[in-house]
Write a structure and sequence with these properties.
The complex is a heterodimer of chains A (318) and B (318). With 318 residues, chain A is mainly alpha-helical. Chain A has helices at residues 10-21, 26-36, 38-55, 57-60, 100-136, 138-152, 156-167, 171-174, 179-205, 209-216, 221-258, 269-276, 285-312. With 318 residues, chain B is an all-alpha fold. Classes of the chains: A mainly alpha (318), B mainly alpha (318).
Chain lengths: 318, 318
């Protein structure tokens, strides 16, 4: 964005030339900015790596994650003192003699699923409710917003605690190791943020000329919503999603740590910390490794989210 | 102005009833009730006795009637009795609430006292190593799960090097008004709870200061020859603080929610721990009371925040 006062130097001419040769859309522009952001790219690389580990867990994990070796419990990682290591358990074993490395890899599965499934639900519910409320206005808006108010005024963790504590013991809750219940619980608690965000976007966009123009040529409300408003309101929603994913993972870890999350023996990082804590003074490794995994994945998503925000909204960049 | 406040208060009423309705429904529609828990300890009870017990507690009535009964009693200021502890719920909330408020206020204070200067320093030396280091601290504060930091605090500073108490609010047998002892117990939980707040405030502060610094009045201050120190600390900082004050509502929401975990980790006898234990044992009168008090706190803080916004920016009053 050169100012008008700037003389047309050779640089500027070259710049203009580039512009003529290759016009980039908003999205290409954003992608270009994102690719140049080192922290975001490192984050993305780590996320892809963890994702691959999650997908191919059965092939790369050396052991069955719930196979116990009672005679080989709480072994140290490979750098430990010789009498407490076993070269077959690279990162050692937990108090039940389960291979920590294999459990970490399988936990990545749960974390990735917890990261993506509820966030998809959040995106779908939040975007539809927010956009409809913002565009329709009037009574529809009032009713939808009062519903979001209810969820918004519920302290997050208290709500999750209540949902998990009441439903975890039931057949619905036990289904699939407690994962589906967790998806729904996280989605119910978190869709309101997305809905409010999209409503605000639509409220400010719907007065713009391009929407008026679309209305003038007879576009139906649903067409305006989907073809005109949605693409224009998408950027902040994408940024919100990139922060919702790690927050969902963290919620799972927290609930599992409190003992009301995923039902053991399904390994997750939160479950591992919860179980490993009992033997922390004997062997810190069953807690240290999953905690490290959580921190690294959280950091990666935060960097990626920051990068996305900077790329999609250059005004925010300082 | 008074119209705006009245409207916000009126809007809060349906929200409030929605929250109580959802909680009640979750508890009473999921299988199992507190009587099961009572009977569990007394195996030789006859079916007739169990039924009589249910009848005595009004648990044999249809759920909507039970809700109305609860509501009627609640409107008369009666929260009922705890099934588990056989004590009036009001009494239990009365002893837990001050503890949670104490913890939340301490955490808020820490977040402000540590977060704001960190952000100001980062803004002042933007782009430098120091700025990078503070950024890493801020991102880390977001990425590391609160419960994990709490556990590490206990392990390192209470178990390995016994500097701080492992849990609780007071040393056994200490007087209620032993302030140093209270503060000593408060360090761990308050620091853990304030972690995310510190991260938030330092980032928000940095952004705000850098935003303010570009404005004309800062240029004027520089132009009239003030030292950089006083430009930043007097002119920029004061203006950058405004959004922090209006943003307190959101922070309070976080503290109320986050307290659930911190209280469980440090065995802090507050609302969060009360709710956690009550939810696990289906002691719904307690859970209802906790939900009512904490969401009232949240609703009030949201309304206060909106009022603060509308004072700062009259456009939102519409």
């Amino acid at each position: 964005m050169a100012t008008i006062a700037r003389p047309l130097t050779q640089d500027r001419a070259a710049e203009l030339n580039v512009l003529v040769r290759k016009q980039r859309s908003l999205w290409q522009d954003a992608l270009y900015r994102l690719l140049r952001n080192k922290a975001a790219m490192v984050g993305l690389a780590i996320i892809i790596l963890v994702g691959l580990a999650a997908i191919f867990a059965p092939f790369i994990a050396p052991w069955d994650p719930i196979l116990q070796h009672p005679d080989r419990n709480t072994y140290d990682p490979f750098w430990g003192s010789p009498q407490y290591i076993d070269h077959r358990f690279i990162l050692g074993t937990d108090q039940l003699g389960r291979d920590i490395l294999s459990r970490l890899i399988y936990s990545a599965r749960v974390s990735m699923i917890i990261g993506f499934v509820p966030v998809t639900l959040i995106f779908v519910i939040g975007v539809s409710v927010g956009m409809v409320a913002g565009y329709a206005g009037g009574w529809t808006d009032q009713i939808l917003m009062r519903v979001t108010d209810i969820v918004y005024a519920f302290p997050d963790l208290l709500f999750l605690l209540i949902i998990m504590a009441t439903l975890r013991g039931t057949d619905v809750g036990k289904f699939g190791g407690g994962l589906p219940l967790m998806f729904v619980a996280i989605a119910i608690v978190n869709w309101v943020g997305m809905a409010r965000l999209m409503r605000g976007q639509v409220l400010s966009l719907k007065e713009k000329e391009f929407v008026e123009a679309a209305r003038c040529i007879g576009a139906t409300p649903s067409r305006i919503l989907i073809r005109h408003l949605f693409p224009n309101a998408l950027a902040p929603a994408i940024v919100a999603v990139s922060f919702a994913i790690p927050s969902a993972m963290l919620t799972e870890a927290t609930l599992s740590f409190l003992g009301i999350g995923v039902i053991p023996p399904t390994p997750t990082w939160g479950v591992m910390i919860n179980e490993g804590f009992a033997v922390f003074t004997t062997s810190p490794w069953p807690v240290v490794f999953p905690a490290l995994c959580i921190a690294v994945v959280m950091l990666s998503f935060t960097f990626l989210g920051d990068g996305l925000r900077d790329a999609l909204d250059p005004r925010m960049k300082i | 102005m008074s119209r705006f406040v009245t409207r916000r208060l009126l809007q809060a009423i349906p929200t409030f009833f929605g929250i109580t309705l959802i909680t009640f429904a979750l508890f009473r529609l999921s299988p199992g009730d507190p009587v099961d828990l009572l009977v569990f300890g007394v195996p030789d009870m006859t079916a007739a006795q169990v039924a009589a017990l249910r009848h005595a507690y009004g648990l044999d009535q249809p759920v909507p009637i039970q809700y109305l009964n609860w509501l009627l009693r609640f409107l008369h200021g009666d929260f009922g009795q705890s099934f588990l502890y056989h004590r009036p719920v009001v009494e239990m909330i009365g002893s837990a609430l001050p503890n949670t408020i104490q913890l939340a206020l301490a955490a808020l204070l820490l977040a402000l006292v540590i977060g704001v200067p960190l952000g100001a320093v980062a803004a002042r030396s933007r782009g430098s190593r120091l700025d990078q280091a503070i950024r890493i601290v801020a991102v880390g504060g977001h990425a590391v799960p609160g419960f994990w930091f709490g556990l590490m605090f206990i392990l390192v500073l209470s178990v390995q090097v016994p500097l701080f108490p492992v849990s609780g609010m007071l040393t056994l047998g200490a007087s209620q008004w032993d302030i140093p002892d209270r503060l000593w117990h408060l360090v761990g939980p308050a620091l853990t709870l304030s972690l995310a707040g510190i991260a938030n405030y330092s980032r928000l502060m940095r952004t705000e200061i850098l935003d303010v610094i570009r404005q004309d009045f800062v240029r004027t201050a520089r132009a009239k020859g003030l030292r950089e120190q006083s430009v930043l600390m007097v002119h920029a900082l004061r203006n950058a603080l405004l959004p922090l004050i209006t943003g307190l509502g959101g922070v309070l929401a976080f503290l109320v929610s986050g307290a659930v975990i911190v209280e469980s980790v440090f065995s802090w006898p507050g609302m969060g721990r009360l709710a956690y234990e009550a939810a696990r044992s289906k002691d719904y009168p307690i859970v209802m009371a906790v939900v009512v008090t904490s969401s009232t706190m949240l609703l009030v803080s949201y309304i206060l925040r909106d009022i603060a916004y509308s004072v700062a920016d009259p456009r939102v009053r519409r």
